[in-house]
């Protein structure tokens, strides 16, 4: 169970590169002790820059950053990265090739010892505990080239955890691994951090990854933090069309007024409060094989537990639909479509998105 005490607070943090590039735009958030925060967004949205600001590798133009109750940036204060007690796991692991596992993990501990921040006799015990924590105790004498990608990532994590910092930062830590290794290692890393009560921030552009392992997800776009919430809320209640498109990869269907109803590619609808677009999840469209159906299966992908279909509508709009693997349709099949109205959201041209649902008499 996580604590309500914030381990990190960022207030109005802004970073520019040159006169025109606003990389991080007035970002504020806090991270509670023991929580994992996923920074999610497309390439160039500012998530890695924000991580580097917290680590101290970049200086912001304005704003404050507070770590474990101490101001490390802002208000005339600046704590250099080596004194911030922040563990960093880099995308490329950044291991020293000439040092073995034990020596790599001990490297940062020895730096602390030289600065008088750690007794020398603790180096070996902290190193051993960190290596054991990531399951590499039997590989302590191996060198990086003798390890797999997943094992190298564990070494990088052990090195970050060894000094027992209040915060761990992970910059796209699984991007260099193959799919199967990514799937089990991301859960393993989450379990390790949770078991020791560590707080962490990880950068990713993988929606599934962020939703799967984060306690909270911060979605960024063009330098701004556009939504911060629990993964379920981000997915089910996106605050903007950008979040809906990027995170849920939902379909958007335009509603055009026609008399007292509204025309959509899924049929005529009622209960819509104005002009705008309907957000329809890929899993909210139900397909039935129907030789007389108006819709055509244009493409099919088998994803293991489910199929993803590209569905060509009579209007020539293509909708993405996901069904259980038990429902197999062939490319070229005609189908009829039924919409599960319970989770349909309406995005007006102006204002906040609205949940329609059956209670508002929405039907096609």
From TrEMBL:
Domain ABC transporter: 8-247
Lineage: superkingdom: Bacteria
Alphabetical keyword list: ATP-binding, Nucleotide-binding, Transport
Compartments where found: Cell inner membrane
A GO CC annotation given for this chain: ATP-binding cassette (ABC) transporter complex
Endoplasmic reticulum recorded as keyword: no
PROSITE patterns, A to Z: ABC_TRANSPORTER_1, ABC_TRANSPORTER_2
SUPFAM superfamilies in UniProt: MOP-like, P-loop containing nucleoside triphosphate hydrolases
EC numbers for this chain: 7.6.2.9
InterPro entries, per the entry: AAA+_ATPase (IPR003593), ABC_SmlMolc_Importer (IPR050093), ABC_transporter-like_ATP-bd (IPR003439), ABC_transporter-like_CS (IPR017871), Mo/tungstate-bd_C_term_dom (IPR008995), P-loop_NTPase (IPR027417), Transp-assoc_OB_typ2 (IPR013611)
GO molecular-function terms, A-Z: ABC-type quaternary ammonium compound transporting activity; ATP binding; ATP hydrolysis activity
Bilayer topology annotation: Peripheral membrane protein
Entry keyword annotation includes Nucleotide-binding: yes
Principal location: membrane
Protein name: ABC-type quaternary amine transporter
Species whose genome carries this gene: Leptolyngbya foveolarum
């Amino acid at each position: 169970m996580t604590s309500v005490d914030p381990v990190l607070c960022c207030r109005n943090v802004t970073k520019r590169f040159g006169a025109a590039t606003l990389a991080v735009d007035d970002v504020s958030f806090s991270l509670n002790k023991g929580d994992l925060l996923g920074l999610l967004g497309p390439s160039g949205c500012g998530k890695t820059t924000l991580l580097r600001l917290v680590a101290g590798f970049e200086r912001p133009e304005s704003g404050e950053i507070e770590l474990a109750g101490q101001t490390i940036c802002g208000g005339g204060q600046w704590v250099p990265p080596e004194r911030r007690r922040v563990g960093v796991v880099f995308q490329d692991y950044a291991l020293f090739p000439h040092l073995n596992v034990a020596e790599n993990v001990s490297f940062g501990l020895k730096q602390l010892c030289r600065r008088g921040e750690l007794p020398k006799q603790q180096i070996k015990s902290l190193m051993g505990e960190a290596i054991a924590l990531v399951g590499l105790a039997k590989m302590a004498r191996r060198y990086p080239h003798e390890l797999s990608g997943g094992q190298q990532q564990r070494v990088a994590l052990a090195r970050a955890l060894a000094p027992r910092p209040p915060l761990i930062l992970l910059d796209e830590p699984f991007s260099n691994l193959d799919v199967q290794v990514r799937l089990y290692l991301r859960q393993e890393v989450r379990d390790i951090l949770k078991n020791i009560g560590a707080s962490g921030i990880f950068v990713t552009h993988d929606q599934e990854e962020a939703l799967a392992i984060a306690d909270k997800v911060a979605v960024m776009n063009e330098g701004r933090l556009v939504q911060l919430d629990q993964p379920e809320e981000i997915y089910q209640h996106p605050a903007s069309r950008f979040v809906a498109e990027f995170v849920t990869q939902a379909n958007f269907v335009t509603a055009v007024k026609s008399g007292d109803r509204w025309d959509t590619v899924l049929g005529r609808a009622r209960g819509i409060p104005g002009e705008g677009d309907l957000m329809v999840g890929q899993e909210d469209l139900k397909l039935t094989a129907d030789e007389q159906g108006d819709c055509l299966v244009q493409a099919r992908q088998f994803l293991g537990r489910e199929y993803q279909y590209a569905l060509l509508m009579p209007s020539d709009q293509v909708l993405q639909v996901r069904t259980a693997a038990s429902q197999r349709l062939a490319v070229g099949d005609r189908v009829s479509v039924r919409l599960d109205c319970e989770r349909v959201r309406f995005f007006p041209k102006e204002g906040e998105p609205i949940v329609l649902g059956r209670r508002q008499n929405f039907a096609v």
